[in-house]
Write a structure and sequence with these properties.
Helix content: 40-55%
Organism: Mikania micrantha (bitter vine)
Order of helices and strands: HHHEHEHEHEHEEHHEHHHH
Structural class: alpha/beta
Pfam family, one: ThiF
Number of domains: 3
Largest sheet: 7 strands, mixed
Bound molecules: zinc ion
Number of helices: 13
CATH superfamily of the largest domain: NAD(P)-binding Rossmann-like Domain
GO molecular function: ATP binding; metal ion binding; UFM1 activating enzyme activity
CATH class of the largest domain: Alpha Beta
Family: Belongs to the ubiquitin-activating E1 family. UBA5 subfamily.
Radius of gyration: 29 Å
CATH architecture of the largest domain: 3-Layer(aba) Sandwich
CATH topology of the largest domain: Rossmann fold
Keywords: ATP-binding, Metal-binding, Nucleotide-binding, Ubl conjugation pathway, Zinc
Length: 425
């Protein structure tokens, strides 16, 4: 359309030159002016929807929130609109972080803080979100451009910086503690941090900051062969932090930068990235809007479609000092929290005193707790071809004497003897 209008302007210029009567030339100038206005309108930014003051549940095609507000009517979420009061920080706007940012934007999150230092490249086009015309833009600027078009109600703050530099680190801290968006919040100015960075150094910075500021955060990671990933909820002092169980290669003191080989890059698939981003935001929504059960750890193995879950307790020998301080604080408040939880459970049990089904037509009986344990263990069985990297902690808590773990018992006895010999010296 733009080219057509420019062609018309050129034709009008030629027509004007061929006319000798000044009054005819004035008429051509008048038409030219109108075509110029049309050209500038055609080049202007695409029309954006105006901001919406309150989220409405009204079922009309023009309501951007009708499908989300329906979660209330379906009894899943008590107050969906409360999502507008939350601030979420996303560190790393790559294959997972950008998709997570788009999902939260479409859900109408109140405020998003976006951190990345990188620029968009053609090599990123195998993933979702970024477009070829954004190549060369910083990922944060490109993200703000797209997200503000999708939902202008979301407050977007972008930080083009590297959090592993001194200046980047300081800006990172000050932005997280800025409470101008919501004065009511205690502590920091954000409700949750999503760590979607792709290197250990940056992960440790996010870990350190969250342990220091007592901020909850989800960590999302995808393996470099692109066929597995996981998400993990880190609650300072309550669950394992990132330093509590570092990867073996890092614990061995190897600099991760030396692991990269020239001309070799990590593989990535839009599918695996999309699945992990989906799991991440699903749990973020459950956490913020208080529905369902939030997974403390959820893995994804694409080759077997296997989704392991587990809980990781903090390591009392963690190398991160703030983590140890948070662990001590948590141990102090834990008895009171357990008592409240126990009282709540008992209240719920007493509320269902009356038999739910007075006449048991089908002779259904409640299965004994012991069977549940057996069932739970059998569901832990791995699909064929997968092996656990680490042994199950229960094996050590409840050792059973069998041919299979005679070696383990011997190893423990051996270790005990070695320790006794050391103490004797
Ligand atoms: Zn720790």
């Amino acid at each position: 359309m733009e080219a057509e209008l420019k062609g018309m302007l050129s034709d009008l210029q030629n027509l004007k030159s061929s006319l000798s009567d000044p009054s005819h030339q004035a008429s051509v100038d008048h038409i030219r002016l109108r075509v110029e206005n049309l050209t500038s309108l055609a080049m202007a930014e695409p029309t954006r929807r105006s901001k919406v003051k309150d989220m409405s549940a009204e079922v009309v095609d023009s309501n951007p929130y009708s499908r989300l507000m329906a979660l209330q009517r379906m009894g899943i979420v008590e107050n969906y609109e409360s999502i507008r009061g939350f601030s979420v920080a996303i560190v790393g706007i790559g294959g997972v972080g950008s998709v997570a940012a788009e999902m939260l934007t479409r859900c109408g999150i109140g405020r998003l803080l976006l951190y990345d230092y990188d620029t968009v490249e053609l090599a990123n086009m195998n993933r979702l979100f970024f477009r070829p015309e954004q190549v060369g833009m910083t990922k944060t600027d490109a993200a703000v451009q797209t997200l503000s078009e999708i939902n202008p109600d979301v407050v977007l703050e972008s930080f083009t910086l590297n959090i592993t530099t001194v200046q980047g680190f300081e800006t990172f801290i000050s932005s997280l503690t800025n409470k101008s968006y919501s004065q009511k919040k205690e502590g920091t100015g954000v409700d949750l941090v999503l760590s979607c960075v792709d290197n250990y150094e940056a992960r440790m910075v996010v870990n350190q900051v969250n342990n220091l500021l007592l901020l909850l955060f989800f960590f999302a990671g995808v393996s470099e062969d692109a066929v597995s990933g996981h998400i993990q909820l880190l609650i300072p002092g309550e669950t394992a932090c990132f330093a509590c169980a570092p990867p073996l290669v890092v614990a061995s003191g190897v600099d991760e930068r030396t692991l990269k080989r020239e001309g070799v890059c990590a593989a990535s698939l839009p599918t695996t990235m999309g699945v992990v981003a989906g799991l991440l935001v699903q749990n973020t929504l459950k956490f913020l809007l208080k529905f369902g059960q939030v997974s403390p750890y959820l893995g994804y193995n694409a080759l077997k479609d296997y989704f392991p879950t587990m809980t990781m307790k903090p390591n009392p020998q963690c190398s991160n000092r703030p983590c140890l301080e948070r662990q001590k604080e948590y141990m102090l408040i834990k008895p009171a929290r357990d008592a409240v939880a126990k009282a709540k459970r008992e209240e719920e049990l007493s509320a269902i005193d009356i038999p739910i089904h007075a006449d048991n037509e089908w002779n259904i009986s409640v299965v004994d707790d012991c069977d549940d344990v057996i069932n739970a263990r059998s569901s832990d069985a791995l699909p064929e071809g997968l092996v656990h990297e680490l042994p199950n902690a229960d094996v050590y808590k409840h050792p059973t004497v069998s041919n299979e773990n005679v070696d383990t018992v011997d190893d423990l006895e051996d270790l005990k003897r070695q320790l006794e010999a050391l103490n004797a010296d």
